[in-house]
Request: fold
Amino acid sequence: MAKSVFYSFHYDRDAWRVQQVINMGALEGQPILSAQDWEKVKRRGDQAIKDWIADQMKYKSAVVVLVGAQTANRPWVKYEIGYAWDNYKPLVGVRIHGLADGAGHTDSAGANPFSQVILQDGNNVGDHVPLYSPNGSNSQAVYASIKENLTTWVNNAVKRS
Reply:
């Protein structure tokens, strides 16, 4: 059985790329909410979003942040990273900007979202959590690199005790 993970990502910009990762079948992740279902959760307010995140992460073995061009600036991605860190969930990041979107376009690499989450000691999560960059000069090669390495990257995710 595939390892069960929580995927954190920028929904509006990267859902197409994330769906490719999920469809690889290397890992079992939470279902991606439809735009309508996500809007229902958002309309209920910030606490409803936090509750949804907590519920989705509860029984997951790791949190995988799928990093596109604008992921690092997303407040809920930062919250999910902090929540995972505070709740001792293994964390790992994988860059997905090299995967093509629905229109066939790849994107530029974004900033490291882990470096945006500051810890109480003044360091940031990026000082502790790896962000993997798949190999490949086109979307097919990046896809193959992610598919080949994703399970290993998740198995090597930073674990806190």
Summary: Residues 4-155 form a domain with the Rossmann fold fold (CATH 3.40.50.450). Residues 30 and 143 are 20 Å apart (CA to CA). The radius of gyration is 15 Å.
